Structure prediction request, 182 residues.
Amino acid sequence: MNKFYNDKTILLADDSPTIRKIISGELQRFGFLEANMKEVANGKLALEFLKKYSVDLIVSDWNMPEMSGIELLAAVRADQKISKTPFLMVTSEAEDHKKKEAFECGADQYVTKPFDVAVMERIIFQLLTLTVVFKGKKVLVIDDSLVMRTIIMKNLKLAGFHMDSIMEAGSGEEAFALLLHH
Prediction:
């Protein structure tokens, strides 16, 4: 149990009470206090909560009624007051195009259900600690393979870079144009 998590707040959005209970139990085992966790059943309720309270981390499912996790993610990233809040998508959506969509929308990490608890703990620790290390730094990933760029960008996110700080180019020419513009 890591005492580092004692003062960290988490918003957990998932329509399944069972999944919320499982994730909440694991978070408490990591060291999060139950009193610092808010559980909601959909993105709409999550967004309403975020308009009133700040949190250190958002953990959200993709498929939820009223407002999906991807819609919640888009709303969070569009709201300047909460746009930098780390967002972890925990979902059964395992297809590559779904992962890509989530990362393009601004997810900081993506975990598929069923998840490995040790991996989840490592990702949450990184999201809460390493994101400040590279604040203000930017990276340009250049590779002609979209798959390789996606892998590299995912690893950069794991290292602590925010997706807003990572640019990608499929060629040297495209990279040069990005450098001139940014």
Summary: The beta strands are 10-13, 37-40, 57-60, 87-91, 109-112, 139-142, 166-169. The chain has seven helices and seven strands.
